[in-house]
Amino acid sequence: MQTAGLIVAVAVILAAAAFGVLRRARDGRVRAVSMSSPALEQLGVRPGQVTLVQFSSAFCAPCRTTRVVCAEVARTTPGVTHVEVDAESHLAQVRELGIRRTPTVLIVSPTGEVIRRAEGAPTLAQLRAALSALGRSASAPSV
Question: With 50 as the cut, is the pLDDT of residue 138 above it?
């Protein structure tokens, strides 16, 4: 009986460790997506510039770090703005956009389409790389 309990305990620990490693590897990774939604306008996203839309919640510690990173990127990158959204206060938009955790950052193109998404806290380098991958025309306002 003790051997079975030990085996179960080891299996649970190994499963938890594997989950942690997988989650850490994917956390904050910016990936390409393609979607548009009227919910973005309701959240304050305006066409004509790239917008970092950050979904946060009051109890989320990584959200504070993400706020600083997004604000820095917006401050130092021409044509990029940052909008922070309280996920709890905008549940309809959260559902429509498929937000499953906070922080989540959506990169919205000047045409209003979500073109990149990061679940978890992205680093400054990850966001800058994602924006530079869009090319100069996507990160500057259309003329």
Answer: no
